[in-house]
Design a protein that fits this description.
The chain is of the alpha/beta class. It has two helices and five strands, in the order E-H-E-E-E-H-E. The chain has helices spanning 12-24, 69-78, and strands spanning 7-9, 29-31, 43-46, 53-56, 82-85. The strands form two sheets. The protein has a three-stranded parallel sheet with strand order 2-4-5, covered by helices on one side. It has a two-stranded antiparallel sheet with strand order 1-3. Strand 4 (53-56), helix 2 (69-78) and strand 5 form a beta-alpha-beta unit. It is globular and about 35 Å long.
Length: 86
């Protein structure tokens, strides 16, 4: 996921499946490790606010190990996404 470009996927087919799931879900929870924050893939799935809750590891907030993490977490909060650290 990317602060400015939202949720994305490298495969067009996977992006279509995720978009269909988002359209049908009453509540959405995304789970990804810190290495996915700040990454923009080929196909956009949805804006950040399309997800209700995001679960990641605590290192996502560490700019030294994950440069895109803090900005992406901030953008998720601005989009009213609940963030949980596991």
């Amino acid at each position: 996921m990317h602060a400015e470009h939202g949720w994305s996927e490298f495969s067009l087919d996977d992006a279509a499946v995720k978009q269909a799931g988002l359209a049908q879900a009453a509540t959405t929870i995304a789970v990804a490790d810190a290495t996915k924050l700040g990454v923009r893939a080929f196909s956009q799935v949805a804006p950040l606010g399309a997800v209700d809750t995001f679960v990641t590891d605590e290192s996502a907030a560490d700019a030294d190990t994950h440069p895109g993490g803090p900005r992406t977490l901030e953008a998720l909060r601005e989009a009213n996404v609940e963030i949980l650290f596991a």
